[in-house]
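batch job 7 of whatever, protein = Hippurate hydrolase
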Amino acid sequence: MEDAMTPPATYPDAATLKQWRHDFHRHPEIAFEEHRTSAQIIEILQAHGLEVTTGLGGGTGVVATLSGSRPGPTIGLRADIDALPIEESNEFEHRSTIAGRMHACGHDGHTTMLLGAACALARAPDFAGRVHFIFQPAEESEGGARVMVEEGLFERFPMEAVYGLHNWPGLAAGEAAVHDGPVMAAFDVFTLTLTGHGCHAAMPHLGSDTILAACQLATQLQGVISRETPAHQSAVLSITQFHAGDAFNVLPESVELRGTVRCFDPALKAHLAKRLNEAIQALAQFHGLEVELDYQARYPATVNSAEHAARCARVLEAMPAIRRVHRDLPPSMGSEDFAFMLEHCPGAYIWLGNGDSAALHNPAYDFNDAIAPLGVAYWQALVRGLLTTADT
């Protein structure tokens, strides 16, 4: 007997989806290098008669277009296709065959689910309107969505709304989460170099202790979060790298710190960036150090349109295979470049439970093949639910 989570058997079947997903997993490719992945996507789409546009998003992005049996509005569905520069620790048969590369975030599964939905809908385009299936490269820190938008995604493929999803470890398979507003945090990165005068470790008074200064800064910056951020707003500032020194008995001339700043509110984001710079300048002046700060705003916050989130929730709640739709989970401080698409087109981004798996970006992570048919069914239900009338 099938598990209650499993949707009715459809085309492509679970075995085909698993075959596709395992092939993508064995051959992970990182940002803007997804040439094999892109070629596989194109081959499958064209074999099912979809209209395919290639060369987007820096060269490896793909958009497939399908018109329904009746005229109507247009929506977009998006999947990310890139992997991460992580060495996989799994030993199963479909583990990565490329050293230092791994699908540690489930983009192999996201790609498979959208491919499955595109192929199934191409067989039975019983909806009113048009769907653009967006296969986007370089989600992991490189902003492939931003590149696609800048290259004219929404001008070349006009749409009334755009939708995305992400598998979510820790959320039970057969469950989903939909947020009415913020889903994922904005993401900025910084690289800071503090430079002074190196000296013998036995004679620190003859030089500048850049390590002491950097340690003080790392501690001081947390006060910007704990004492300057309103208690009802979430923000995280993390020092993630600390590079300095080569010898036991030398105070190094320079120290490099790297880190991230994350929050949801644009005004707060600007405030944190300003205060970070002010704290660095004040500390450098106190210690007599020179400063080089490279601060980059990477991703905006991913914020759903409440109207489109409600539509996704209604579709999910009507699916027998979905046991529960969470509407009250807190947003994640992780980030997602689908935010760039939502800045230019209304829509919504949901979480689909991956079950009790390793965390995202963990060397032991693997996408749960059991939820692939569920994702395919959701995309189809969303298309048919939204494009049965002019209401998108």
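notes: The mean pLDDT is 95.
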